[in-house]
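User: Structure tokens for both sequences below?

Assistant:
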Amino acid sequence: MFPVFMMLALSFRWGIQGIDPEYMSFLIPGVVTMTAMLGTTNETMSIVWDRTIGTFDRILAAPVSSISIVLGKILSGTFMGFVSAVVMIIVGKLVYNVSFGNVALTLLVIILSCLSFTGIGTVVSGLASEPREASMLLNAFRFPMMLICGVFFPIEALPIPLPWIARFFPLTYAIEAIRAFSGELKSIIYIDIAVLVVYAFTTILVGSKILLKIITR
């Protein structure tokens, strides 16, 4: 929830009327997707904790399948990121009067983004041997995404080759789609959604296989 407090702090520091509405309409969609990313990846950190303290072994002693454990972990990460993003959307609408255009498609993009980030977090946490390593590896993905994927400024303003590198991260496509919803729907939105679908499917598939291997070792 740090991005929420950050935006509220900006309001009290400069005054709501003193903040450029045009920039806030640009910034908040980026903060929404960044919040989803942080919420999902922080939740997937529980995988490495469960692995370290032997929680999986105790869970498997109960009459539950390995698939249900994997599904529960994926859904918990996705749900946490989705709720965090929705809270940020509400703050953006009520405090800054930012329009998100097509609400249904916006929520779809957020869900696909959360699935993608959950997949990334599951892969990283599954490969890490202990929590500090997982945190360091996740930050190696999260901080570059926050800085070059267009959260705070357009990726077109970045020097080459950073805009090309940004296109390898799902955060770029999520931000691009949500920002486009506030204006007229463009064909690029459907490309963004298609990329997020592929990203979500691939990372969830890989992450699930890694997590299953950990649980059934």
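Moving on to the next sequence.
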Amino acid sequence: MRYVILRDDDTNALTPIECLDTLYRPFLERCLPVNLAVIPEVATDALTPEGRPEGFLFAKNGTRAARVPINDRPELLRYLQQNPGFRVVQHGCHHDCFEFARNSASEISGRVERGLRLLAEAGFPRPEAFVAPHDKFSRASYREVARQFRVISSGWFELRRLPLSWWPHYFIKKARHANHWRTGGTILLSHPGCLLSAQRDFNRMHDEIVHTIENRRLTVLVTHWWEYFPGGKAHERFISLLHQTADYLVSRPDIKVISFADLTKGKVDLN
């Protein structure tokens, strides 16, 4: 059996419901869980590492508040709660650029705890997994996130940023050429880049996804909902490729789509 986790980043209080439903209705109808990395309190001036406004802000519609908590959108909360196929994980706190690459342990702790509190106030179960904006962590962030969450999902793990006590487990992972590893009670998952991305070759995208899944025990497929709606308009070809992925996943009895929380039950061999 091979396993797939679908991770969609950047859902926040400004996300249009129709965008999520357009993308994921075929998954929900087939009982394929969709893991939404939710920003608890989105910064409306969030910038990319290149200094451009984040793409997920296209729908802020003149909002002047500096930050908008997820529980300011009760209609979005109702939609997510009425569709239990969506599984919420925590995506930073405000999505400030590299907000979890900072070194202040007290600041990191405050952001983690604020995010957890806002998600709880919104009515979501306590998330099992954490995703850092831009997949960037500091050593202080790794320590705090591992204390609060059982799963860390990232694109990569840099040795110089890891707590020293994690190094032996990291070296074992490298020696085994493993994609995923554990340290203490924490599961650390790496993903093979954003295979479902508007920056990739649409002509090769599906074949690359299939090849990756067939060559891994567990694959984390990462995408970003807002990339399917450039300028607020649906990119039909890109959306069709996402839906083709759903068709592929349900057509293969040897592939099971799971949530991050399913990993914590100990029933999945990571490698």
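User: Anything stand out in the second?

Assistant: The radius of gyration is 18 Å.
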